[in-house]
Design a protein that fits this description.
Structural class: mainly alpha
Number of helices: 4
Radius of gyration: 19 Å
Shape: elongated
Order of helices and strands: HHHEEH
Largest sheet: 2 strands, antiparallel
Distance between the termini: 25 Å
Length: 187
């Protein structure tokens, strides 16, 4: 009989922290991009588009790895409603991390703007060119970005609660690889 997994694999930990850094950078680049009219605007756009596609690839890789590798269970003493909230929040984060770059890609396609990955390497459009669709997708992209930012803040808050208040090893299972500590009820 296999013993239960108490921490995330090194692969999942690396993907998690790499994506965390890149997502925060991406959100700040996005905000900077829309509030500046300086010469930096073109430079920020040139970073934002390929980085978004790179993040889309990373989240797809992360989902594939997560499907084949076991992940730790939440602590036994954690109430069922909190476990369900954690599952739903992770699902929402994965949906946002997948949807946001796809909406951005579709938005750029609808606006007639190519996504240049490198020099002459362009992604094909995934939506027809349409000004009204572009406007709708631009709004959707903005709303989804704010939702992702809020989701990241909630995720960070939960991680800090586990580390500083509950001290149950949930955060360390994603940082150092030490295991989740579970105490059977009544102990």
């Amino acid at each position: 009989m296999k013993s239960p997994v108490t921490h995330f694999s090194r692969t999942l930990r690396v993907l998690h922290w790499l994506m965390a850094i890149l997502l925060l950078a991406m959100l700040f680049i996005g905000v900077s991009m829309v509030v500046t009219l300086s010469e930096r605007h073109s430079w920020l756009v040139a970073i934002h588009k390929p980085l978004g596609i790179f993040l889309l690839l990373l989240v797809l890789i992360r989902l594939a790895v997560r499907l084949v590798q076991a992940t730790p269970s939440l602590p036994l003493e954690m109430p069922a409603w909190q476990k369900r909230a954690a599952q739903l929040s992770h699902l929402l984060l994965y949906i946002l991390m997948t949807t946001l770059p796809l909406v951005g890609w579709a938005m750029q396609s609808a606006g007639g703007y190519p996504i240049v990955l490198h020099d002459t390497l362009l992604l094909p459009p995934i939506a027809s060119q349409d000004v009204q669709l572009y406007a709708l997708l631009r709004l959707a992209h903005t709303v989804l970005a704010y939702l992702l930012f809020v989701g990241i803040l909630l995720h960070l808050t939960a991680a800090l609660v586990h580390a500083l208040i509950r001290k149950d090893g949930v955060l360390s299972s994603m940082t150092t690889g030490r295991g989740i500590r579970s105490v059977p009820d009544g102990q």
